[in-house]
Amino acid sequence: MPELLAAASILVATAGAMSLLLVLPAAGLAETAGEHHAASRARIWLAALVLPPLIGTICAVAALMLHAQGFVASPHEGGQRPHLCLVPLHDAPAGAYRLSIFAWIALILVVLTLLRLVFGTIASHLLRRLALTNGAPVPGLERGCLVNEVRLSRLIAFSAGLARPVVVLSTSLLRALDSERLAAIVAHERAHCRRRDNLASLVADICVVVQALMPTAHYYRHQWRAASEAAADDAALGAGVAPEVLHAALQSLRGEAPRTVSTPTLVSLLIPDLPVTDQRLARLEALTDADPAQARAARALFWAVGTAAVLLVAVLLVVSSQSVQDTLFCAAEQFTRATR
Predict the structure, then answer these.
(1) What is the separation, in whole angstroms, between the first and last Cα of the chain?
(2) Do the beta carbons of residue 48 and residue 30 sit within 8 Å?
(3) For residue 39, what is the enclosing H or E element?
(4) Per-residue pLDDT at 162 exceeds 60
């Protein structure tokens, strides 16, 4: 059990530290990508969410492996090597108690992350199955686009499922929109299906749980959601939808507010909210004035800055590899001592 608590502590602590360190690089890369490259920005923000837990997991495994070697790997034997040492923190008054409290909090976060993975997968599968069971193919639209009777007093369109997502439309939406605006909504949702945004959303939510103590993780998720919606808008425009038509369709969805209070159903509890914001609508209006040359220059700058950042991180890791190993060993040793 002490080893498990130590591993959870190192995972959460490393993920939190990495989340803080990625604020400026992620924001800089997203700004370099430009407003007209939403797909690139979405990948940046998702990477900022995924990398900290991934690096934290690697560090936790490496720390346990180093700790298993005993004094051979200890930075405190035969002259202390430079590293981030937790011995003063452990030996301080009530230091071991504080480390043990943090270890238990970290373990709870890891368990909640696993539960979020399980329940998120089940909920997505259940929503897709309900749509397939209760829905019917919409005439004139692509296969897999289903209409589902949703007991909500608003227009609704969403994609359901992880591995094989489908587009679901409410009957009220089919009756309220003309064929042109309906095709724009379908193109947007089909883009979410092609991009596997439901799966990416689940991954983002899982990463946020393990980094729940860090406000940066919640900021990254918010930015990813906005960028993923913009990327789906771009894909719909690339499929031939006019910007003004998609703008009008989104305004129709946003303008539909619940007028009556009804008993929530299982389907209504699983359906996500529609992320139609003023910023998203303003972006669609500005796309008609985009300069292609400026967009290409921004994309080239983005790849140049991204490559330089990756090379810099690789050099820093190579130079400080011994200090990193000693820090991981020390952390595993002190958390294990504190939780025995």
Answers:
(1) 8
(2) no
(3) helix 38-68
(4) yes
The residue extents of the domains of the chain are 2-338
DSSP β-bridge partners for residue 158: 168
Question: What 3-state DSSP class applies to 127?
Answer: helix
What strands lie across the sheet with 157-160, from one edge to the other?
136-137, 145-148, 166-170, 157-160
Number of residues written out for the chain = 340
Dihedral angle, C-alpha 320, 321, 325, 331, nearest 10 °: 40
How many CB atoms are closer than 10 A to CB 238?
10
Paired tokens of 108: 């709870």
Lowest-pLDDT choice from 75-79, 151-155, 262-266, 296-300? 262-266
More confident residue, 127 or 312: 127
Q: What is the residue whose two structure tokens read 């050099």?
A: 315
Scan for tokens 């298993």, then name that residue: 68
Looking at residue 82, its pLDDT comes to 73
Burial label for 82, CB within 10 Å (0-12, 13-18, 19+), is: exposed
* Mean of all residue pLDDT scores within the chain: 78
| Largest Cα span, the chain | 78
Total Cβ atoms within 10 A of residue 133: 9
Please report which confidence band the pLDDT of residue 259 belongs to, taking 50, 70 and 90 as the band edges. Answer: very low
pLDDT of residue 116: 92
Q: d(Cα 113, Cα 53) in Å, to the nearest integer?
A: 11
Residue type at 271 in one-letter notation: I
